[in-house]
Write a structure and sequence with these properties.
The complex is a heterotetramer, with two copies of chain A and two copies of chain B. Chain A is built from two helices and five strands. Chain A is of the alpha+beta class. The chains are: A alpha+beta, B alpha+beta. Strand 2 of chain B pairs antiparallel with strand 2 of chain C, so a sheet runs across the interface.
Chain lengths: 80, 167, 167, 80
C-alpha cells in the first residue's frame, strides 16, 4: 500500500486529506499514482499547477514510487 | 541550524538571544528577514490569514535549505521560524536569521533562504473573508521557470487561475 | 525615518514594535542588520571596545543616508540605531531595519545603509587592552576607491598604517 | 573665527579636541585650515588618511571655508 496525502486546494477539491492505495503497477511513477487517485475519486486534477512529494521530498511527476511510500500532491506553495 | 514550525507568535529578539551561542562565536553580525501579514487597508473584506502546512515535510524542507545555505555561503549558523494557523493583520509569519563573520554572506544567505523557502517549503496561505476563504495563489514555478516537482498535472494544461493576491 | 545615537543598549524587537506604524502600513516584511562586537577568543588581550563619535554630524549623516535610501529604493521606512561608548564582547553596536512592500527592496536598502554607514558616519572604534587602547583602522576610502572627503593629507602620502583589526 | 574639531587618532596626535582659529585668508579652503592647525600645534598631520567636514558635512580638502564655519578633521570612520 501507499499512503497519499493532499493539501490546500487539492485537498478541498478532492474533499479528502488522505487515501490509501495499492501501488498501481510495478515500476509505477508519481503520475501513475495521480491517475489512480483521479480514478478512485472521480475528480480530475489535470490542468492546474500541481506539485508532488515522495516521502516528504519534492519530486517530478516521473519519479518512481515504491510500496510503502508516502506520496503527496499539493498546489504551489505560498509560505513566507 | 535551528528550524521551528509553530502556531505561536514569537519574539525576534528573544529567539536570537536564546540561539545556541557556540556556533555563532566570531559573528560580526546577523541579518534577519521578518515577514508579516499585510495590513489590508485596501481590501477591507480580509479578516485574517490562515496557513496550512505539511507537518514533517515542512521541517525537513527547512532543514534541507538551511544546510544548503551553509554549504553555499560563508555563514556561521541560521534560524528559521515559520508559523501556521490563523494570523491577523501585521502579525509575524516568518523569521529568517543568519549569523556570519562578514555581513555580505549574511545578507546573501538570508535572501537565499527566504527566496527558496517561498518556493519549496510546503505552506499554503488562505485569506479569510466574511463570506468564506480563498487560497492565495502565487505560482513561483511559473515565475521562476521550470523546477523539479513543478507540473501542470498529467493532463494538458488548460490555463492557470491566479487570484489577485500576489506577494 | 528614525535615527538614534545612544550609549544605551537596545532591544531589537522592542525598537521595531515601537516604530511609528503609520509609515509602514502595507509592509510585507522587514530586513534587519544587527552588528555586534566580536568575541575575541583568539585575541584574549582585547577587553572591550570603545566607540567615539562626532555628536551632531553623526545624526545628520545617518539622516542623510536614510533619505538617500528612501530616494533610491522602493521602501516604506527605516530605522538606524548606533551605540557609542564602551561595549563588551557580543554586545550590539548597530541596528539597521528597513520596511518595504517587497523584500527585495528591503534587502537592497538595508545593505546599502550599513555599507554607507560604515564609510560615512563619523564613528571610530578602539580596542581596549590591558596595556592601553588602539584605534581600529579600516580605511574604507582605500577599499572603496576615491570618495569626496577622503584624502591622504595635504602632504604626499608616505604610506598607510593598518592595524591587524579589519572587519 | 572658525571652530576646528578633531576626532579619534587625530585628536590624540594633536592632544586637543578643539581649536579656534581666525580664517587663514579670504577664499580659504579646508587644506588651508589644516595647514594653519599644523602651524599652530607644531604637529604634522600629512601622510595619513584624513577626512574633513565643514558644518558637519563631508567635504573635500579643496572645499571653501567661511568665517563662522565649523571645520572637523578625523581619520577614516570605523563605525557599524
Amino acid at each position: 500500500m501507499i499512503e497519499v496525502k493532499f493539501f490546500a486546494s487539492i485537498r478541498e477539491q478532492l474533499g479528502c486529506a488522505q487515501l490509501c492505495l495499492s501501488l498501481p503497477r510495478d515500476g509505477a511513477c508519481v503520475a501513475d499514482v495521480l491517475q489512480a487517485v483521479e480514478a478512485q475519486t472521480g475528480v480530475h486534477l489535470g490542468g492546474q499547477h500541481l506539485l508532488a512529494a515522495v516521502n516528504m521530498a519534492h519530486v517530478a511527476m516521473t519519479a518512481p514510487v515504491s510500496d510503502g511510500d508516502e506520496v503527496a500532491f499539493f498546489p504551489p506553495v505560498t509560505g513566507g | 541550524m535551528l528550524v521551528k514550525v509553530q502556531a505561536a507568535d514569537f519574539d525576534s529578539q528573544a529567539e536570537i538571544n536564546a540561539f545556541p551561542q557556540e556556533g555563532i562565536r566570531g559573528a560580526g553580525g546577523l541579518v534577519s528577514f521578518v515577514g508579516t501579514v499585510r495590513d489590508y487597508s485596501d481590501a477591507a473584506d480580509i479578516l485574517a490569514m490562515e496557513i496550512e502546512h505539511y507537518p514533517g515535510m515542512t521541517e525537513r524542507e527547512l532543514e534541507r535549505i538551511s544546510a544548503e545555505a551553509r554549504a553555499h555561503y560563508d555563514i556561521l549558523d541560521s534560524l528559521i521560524i515559520h508559523r501556521f494557523g490563523r494570523l491577523g493583520p501585521n502579525e509575524r509569519i516568518v523569521q529568517v536569521t543568519v549569523w556570519a563573520r562578514h555581513r555580505a554572506a549574511a545578507f546573501d544567505a538570508c535572501r537565499f533562504l527566504i527566496d527558496v523557502l517561498k518556493t519549496s517549503a510546503p505552506f499554503w496561505k488562505r485569506e479569510i473573508t466574511p463570506t468564506g476563504m480563498r487560497w492565495v495563489t502565487d505560482c513561483p514555478g511559473c515565475r521562476a521557470g521550470t523546477r523539479e516537482g513543478h507540473s501542470h498535472g498529467v493532463a494538458p494544461a488548460v490555463g492557470h487561475q491566479h487570484s489577485s493576491m500576489h506577494k
